[in-house]
Queue: 2 jobs
Job 1
Amino acid sequence: MLNIEATPGKLRITLDVVLRERHPMFTSPVAAEQYCYQKGSLTFEGVSEIHWSGQESMVAARDNIDGQLDFGGLDDFVISGESSSLTGNFGFITVISRFPILEMEARP
C-alpha cells in the first residue's frame, strides 16, 4: 500500500500489484525482487460509509525499493454486495460503495 486517500464519496488506494505470468502486463521481476510489481489504484466510488480500524497498529511507513513510502501489504480483500473489506498492515477497512475498480498505470 503506497497511499490511502478518502474524499467525500470516494476512496482511492494506490498500491503495487503483484502480476502473475498469465497477466498481459507481466514481465520478469527486476533484480532484487521476487515478483513482477505494477503500480495501480483501487478506487471505490459512490462511497456512503468508510470504517477504518486498527490504524494504531499500523506499521510505520518505510521506503520501498523505488524510494516510495510503503505502508505494507494488502492481506485480504473481500467483496460482498456493496460492502468491501480490506485487511493488512494498515488495519481493517470496510467500505460501502459501488463495485471497486482496479486500474493499472502504464509502464514507462
Job 2
Amino acid sequence: MTAQLRHLDSTCGLEQWRDAVIAHAEPHGDWSFCAQQCQEWTRTITTVLGRMRDTGVLRPEAEPEALATGLVAAFQGGLLLARMTRDTTSVKIALDMAVDRVKGFATGRPADSGSRSLPDG
C-alpha cells in the first residue's frame, strides 16, 4: 500500500488508495497494521500532499503533515471500531471524512482530475 501512495498526485488518487486499503482488508480480515506501517504511511502521505501543494493541486495553506496525521489517525480509529464490530464501515466513514478534509484544500487544477491511476503494489 505504501508503494501506491508514492504515486498519488490527486485527491481522486487518495480516494483510490482508501478504497484499496479497505478492499485489501475486507476479504481477509487482515487488519494487522503495525505502528511502523502507520509511521511509514504518515511520512509518505506527508510527502505526497506536499508535492500536491507544491504543484498547485492543493492550496498553499494546506499543511501536509497535519493532513497526513489526520488521514492515518482516521484509519487507526476506524480500524479500532472495525475490530470491535467486525465491520469495515467505520474505516470507510473515517477515511471518507479525512479525505474530504484534504479535498477541502483542492484548487480544482487539472492534475486533480484523478486521471492518474494507482499502480499495483
